[in-house]
Amino acid sequence: MSITFDGRVAIVTGAGGGLGRAYALELARRGARVVVNDLGGARDGSGSSDAAAKVVEEIAAAGGTAIANGASVTDPEQVEAMVRSAQETWGGVHILINNAGILRDRSFAKMSADDFRSVVEVHLLGSALCTKAVWEIMRAQAYGRILMTSSSSGLFGNFGQANYGAAKLGIAGLARTLHLEGAKYDIRVNTIAPTAATRMTEDIFPPDMLALFNPDNVVPAALYLVSEDAPTNMIVGAGAGVVQATYVTLTQGYALPEGRRTVEEVAANWDRITDRSGEIVPQSGAEQAMTILRALQATQGTSSAT
Ligand code: NAI
């Protein structure tokens, strides 16, 4: 069964190049009307250009429908104007891919407060502002598909990317709560952690890997996550055509017995606390609270039986 986006309106931020461009081209090829957003700056966020207009030309040349938008995702007024223009032109917004991003890599020791703030602002605040701008529309139409862009640097850590990693794990956290708040309105929120050869990673990939890590190889997973039958609340890794799911898990843990709630008891039971057998994937923070209560009940059962 082929998956189409006929009748859907999609906004892709940072779509003037790299992954965003690849998403926008394929969404348009599959029938979506696409807002190609990009400020068109350099990798560190400085300057601007008409990168978005060039991608719109490519889409039009291939027979698709798109409009260019040069809003900075960090500017609430520009973002609201972008969403308004999509709605006025096409009558709704069904898909948002928060993809815009910049890099200011340095070891934490050398990182300035400005390097930290700018990166968090574009990635995390930018994703929140764009999502906020489409949120009411999606709630009112009882349909929305939102894709956040995280990174292995946020999920697992990466030397020299404290700012970027903090923003990227923050984005995954944003998705977690928005999924809960949007569920009633069929707003599904997923997170992708891509790996692709773009200008962002141009210093990393050896030349013989460039074709393998073409952004096109991330597109299938990204588009599935914003399709009609998309899952929700997933964190998905995608690169070179390999698609993976990643989870935040919780161990069964160990309830410190009453009267022995001491540092020494934690130290003595560290292996038990971190034992991964029987670990679960909580679907909300409340679920963790329930596991705490269950663990306590279990110890009370044990202490009354003994
Ligand atoms: P890219 O640099 O080609 O794309 C990012 C785009 O965002 C650029 O076109 C840039 O002009 C735009 N942008 C930056 N600041 C903006 C702003 N304030 N407003 C609007 N647009 C803005 O790099 P790439 O690799 O395509 O990155 C896309 C996303 O994927 C980013 O969020 C990045 O962090 C993420 N990512 C990429 C990985 C990779 O292996 N390429 C790995 C993990 C995450």
UniProtKB/TrEMBL annotation:
**InterPro entries, per the entry:** KR_dom, NAD(P)-bd_dom_sf, Peroxisomal_Beta-Oxidation, Sc_DH/Rdtase_CS, SDR_fam
Origin organism of this chain?
Answer: Allosphingosinicella deserti
Instruction: From the UniProt record, list the coiled-coil ranges.
Output: none
User: Which positions fall inside the Ketoreductase domain?
Assistant: 8-195
Q: Which Pfam families match?
A: adh_short
Query: Which GO molecular function terms does the record list?
Result: oxidoreductase activity
| Keywords for the protein's UniProt record, in alphabetical order | Oxidoreductase
Do the record's keywords include Oxidoreductase?
Answer: yes
Q: Which SMART domains match?
A: PKS_KR
The protein, known as: 3-oxoacyl-ACP reductase
Q: At the top level of its lineage, which domain of life is listed? A: Bacteria
**SUPFAM superfamilies this protein is in?**
NAD(P)-binding Rossmann-fold domains (SSF51735)
